Amino acid sequence: SAFQVQVILLPQIMRPDDANVAGNVHGGTILKMIEEAGAIISTRHCNSQNGERCVAALARVERTDFLSPMCIGEVAHVSAEITYTSKHSVEVQVNVLSENILTGAKKLTNKATLWYVPLSLKNVDKVLEVPPVVYSRQEQEEEGRKRYEAQKLERMETKWRNGDIVQPVLNPEPNTVSYSQSSLIHLVGPSDCTLHGFVHGGVTMKLMDEVAGIVAARHCKTNIVTASVDAINFHDKIRKGFVITISGRMTFTSNKSMEIEVLVDADPVVDSSQKRYRAASAFFTYVSLSQEGRSLPVPQLVPETEDEKKRFEEGKGRYLQMKAKRQGQAEPQP
C-alpha cells in the first residue's frame, strides 16, 4: 500500500557549515535533505517491478513553508512517503522534524510535496511507466489526481515565463533591485550528480537558496532566514561538466518580508552544439531577524524600470493571495 511505503533518513546533526552566522540552518540545507529522501523513495518504488532500471528525477517541488527555524546542534529527522502515482510520475510528501537532543523537544520544521519522473538508466531521454500504488481509500487517489492535474497546468504556465535575464548595473543606489541582485557561477562536478551524470535537484535548490540569501542579506544587512519557497519547476536536466549561473533579484517587499526571484541557466561548455538554456526558476521569501530572533521590518524595495515595477505588482499579488489563504485557514470553520 502507498501509505506503508515510507523512507526515513538517518537523523542528521546540524553543524556550523549548515547554518548562517546566527546559527539558523539554511533553507537550502533542509531542501537538499528533503530531496534526498524523495529521490530514494521514488527511485526505489520505480524499480520495484522487473522492468527496465531507472533513476527518479525531480520535476517539481510544490510551495513549502519553513514553519520554525532549525539551529546548529539540533537533529533533523526526515521522513518521506509516496502519496500518489500517475502513469509517468510519483508524488512524494516529506516531513522534517527538528529535535533538541538536550531537552528532547521536537518541532515540525517543514512539510513538502515533490514530483519525480523515472528516467531509464540506458536512455536518459526515455521516461518509463511508474508501478501503480494501492490506496487504502478511494478518495486518496481522487485527491492525488486533482493535485497532479493542477501542478501539470502550472508547469506549462511557468515554462513560457522564462525568457528574461538578470543584467548587472554600474553604481546602483541602495534599496534598488540592481543594488542587491547577485549571481553565483558553479561548475557541475561528479559529487553534484546522480548515477546518470545529471545534477540532483537538491543540489540546485541549495545553490538557489544561497543566492536568494545573499540578495536578502545585501538588501537589509541583517540576519535573514528563508520563510518559504514558491513552487520550483525544473524545466530541463543539467549535465555533469556544465557551468550553471544562478541569478537572484528582489521582486517585492512587504513590511516584513522580501520576495526574491531565482533563475538557473545552464551553459553546456563541453558541448558546442547546444546553447545556454533556462533549467529552473522559483520565488523565495525571506524575513529579517533581530539578534534575539524577532522579525524586523525590511527596507522597502525601490523599483526603477517598467519591468521592475511590473514584477513588484506581480509579487504583491502573490503576497496578498498567500496572506488571504493563511487567514482563511486560521479562521475557525463554522
Automatic annotation (TrEMBL):
Gene3D superfamilies: Hotdog Thioesterase
Keyword Phosphoprotein: no
GO cellular component: cytosol
EC identifiers of the protein: 3.1.2.2
Enzyme class: hydrolase
SUPFAM superfamilies xrefs: Thioesterase/thiol ester dehydrase-isomerase
Subcellular location: Cytoplasm
InterPro entries: Cytosol_ACT, HOTDOG_ACOT, HotDog_dom_sf, Thioestr_dom
Signal peptide range in chain numbering: none
Active site: N20, D209
Chief localisation class: cytoplasm
One GO MF term attached to the UniProt entry: carboxylic ester hydrolase activity
Gene Ontology process terms (BP): acyl-CoA metabolic process; fatty acid catabolic process
Renumbered residue ranges of the record's region Disordered: 298-334
Keywords: Cytoplasm, Hydrolase, Lipid metabolism, Repeat, Serine esterase
Residue ranges of every copy of the HotDog ACOT-type domain listed in the record: 4-122, 178-292
PANTHER family: ACYL COENZYME A THIOESTER HYDROLASE, CYTOSOLIC ACYL COENZYME A THIOESTER HYDROLASE
Protein name, as recorded: palmitoyl-CoA hydrolase
Taxonomic path: Eukaryota, Metazoa, Chordata, Craniata, Vertebrata
